[in-house]
Amino acid sequence: MSQEVWTAVDDYFATELMPADPVLDAALEASAAGGLPLIAVAPNQGKMLNLLARIHGARRILEIGTLGGYSTIWLGRALPEDGRLVTLEYEEKHAVVARANLDRAGLADKVEVRVGVALDSLDAMIAGGEEPYDLVFIDADKPNNPNYFRRALSLTSKGSVIICDNVVRQGKVADADSTDPMVIGSREFAKAVAAEPRVEGTVIQTVGGKGHDGFALVLVVA
After folding, report:
1. Strands, sheet with 156-165, edge to edge from the N-terminal-most edge strand
2. What single string gives the DSSP state of each residue in 195-218?
3. Which of 186, 164, 62, 40 is nearest to 121 (CA)?
4. d(CA 9, CA 123)
5. DSSP conformation class of 222
6. Three-state DSSP class for 50?
7. What pTM, to 2 d.p., does this model score?
8. Which of 39, 130, 135, 214 is in Cβ range 3.0-4.6 Å of 205 for a Cys bridge?
9. Secondary structure of the chain: what % helix, strand, coil (to 5)?
10. Does the pLDDT value for residue 177 go beyond 90?
């Protein structure tokens, strides 16, 4: 199997199962025009996030890592009328693009983009006693994944779901001797989940347009 085949399969299912969406296409185009890195989730991954949020009945969603707001739109569309999504972004220029994309998607009244160091924002949210979130999507700087997970656990409650993207790192996560900070972050994240009695989790490997990677799915059980 090859990257060419993986991409072709992704394209096939996207064509079959996801009709053209001018709003999402425009979000990607605006992100590229703004000079943002082209690292947003693939369309089928975005739809998966949307379906997971809808299956779970999420009313409050927290996203760590906004970029241009592509995944934010997928998640925001899953919210009920009274739902709310808070998304954290480090770069102001990314937040400007994301807000414009969210406004175009008709989600400006449901989504708040908060700019700053995510760990600082999360600590402030914990200290402020924010209402628990039903679903948390972690897709930011990978070395901090274990730190984001621990904060997310403080901002959720029994029954909440935590999803962490890009944890397989092209299979490099299996290398115990790796010195790559992103790989180390993934391995430490796995250890943190395994050591936490309040959660149960698993990781699914994926191949597709984004290459060989995977996501973690964690359920807060206590």
Report:
1. 111-115, 84-89, 60-64, 133-138, 156-165, 211-220, 199-208
2. H-TTEEEEEEEEEETTEEEEEEEE
3. 62
4. 41
5. -
6. helix
7. 0.98
8. 214
9. 45, 25, 30
10. yes
